Amino acid sequence: MVGSLYWDKSEIRKTWRKKRLNSKEFDVVVPIRYGRKSGSRDNTYTMVFSQLCRRKNYGQGTAKVIACKNEANNIESIIEEAEYLWAAERNSPTTNGRFWANWGAIGLFCNPSTSFPDNFFENLRKITTKSSGYGELERTKSEKPVLTEEGFFNLPWPNNQHLPFDIILATATNPTIENGCYPSSRAIAEAWKQDKNGNDKYFWENRKSGIHTFQDGAISNILK
Q1: 50 CB neighbour count, 10 Å cutoff
Q2: Strands (DSSP E) along 50-206, which ranges?
Q3: 28, 51, 52, 109: which could join 168 in a potential S-S bond, CB 3.0 to 4.6 Å?
Q4: Do residues 61 and 214 lie in contact, with contact meaning Cβ atoms separated by under 8 Å?
């Protein structure tokens, strides 16, 4: 989790967390930043995964990994969890048989230390490779895609040696790239300063929850 899915108090998300997740929680280092202009948040910004964060002049961030209550032994049960996660992302009480749209998609991180059976992911690949628009997210010209067309994150396993998992599900949302660039920290902070509806709560609640990016210091200074 890299944003409001973790702390949002809407009844739908609270119910999803209660029914689908347990109390095993871990902090992980991942390449996240603010970079998606969100219409549902009055055109202020939310978080995205970005390959640029892995470069020295940017920086990685801290997110949350929480265990599912149901143990998955096959790809079908993992896809089911992805559909429930997608429903929570959409703030919907019901699943819709999908885990992607034009604004984002669920992908898998796979533990490189785990040996998966042959063809374990075959049914996932059948869904994603035949689905129009899956994982087609904006990026800068110098970046590789965040997601592969087969349904996997094109990123390293999150940096925490104590993670007791084989697979992690996460949501990659579509960034707002303008003139070939992500929005600057100043543009992100100014959008919150000019907003009249308290959408800067998204930033402060992330900070309060231990979800951070390399931009936090600059954004915080401008907002203050």
Answers
A1: 26
A2: 61-68, 100-101, 104-110, 167-173
A3: 109
A4: yes
Positive or negative, the CA dihedral 12, 99, 24, 210 is negative
Q: pTM of the prediction?
A: 0.95
Residues 6+ apart with CB under 8 A from 8: 14
Residue 65's Cβ-count burial label (10 Å; 0-12, 13-18, 19+) is buried
Task: Assess contact for 139 and 145: CB atoms under 8 A.
Answer: yes
Give, in order, the Cα–Cα distances in Å from 211 to each of 8, 75, 90, 139.
Answer: 13, 29, 20, 22
For position 215, what pLDDT does the model report?
A: 98
Is 134 buried (19+), middle (13-18) or exposed (0-12) by CB count in 10 A?
buried
Mean pLDDT of 134-147: 96
By CB atoms closer than 10 A (0-12, 13-18, 19+), residue 130 is exposed
Q: Which two tokens stand for residue 221?
A: 């200074």
- State how far the Cα of 33 lies from the Cα of 53, in Å rounded to an integer: 7
Q: What is the pLDDT of residues 79-126, one digit of tens each?
A: 999 999 999 999 999 999 999 999 999 999 999 999 999 999 999 999
CA distance linking residue 112 with residue 211, whole number of Å:
25
22 Cβ partners below 8 Å, 6+ apart? 66, 67, 68, 69
| Contact (Cβ atoms closer than 8 angstroms) between residue 59 and residue 207 | no
Q: Which residues contact 213 (CB under 8 A, 6 or more apart)?
A: 32, 33, 34, 47, 53, 59, 61
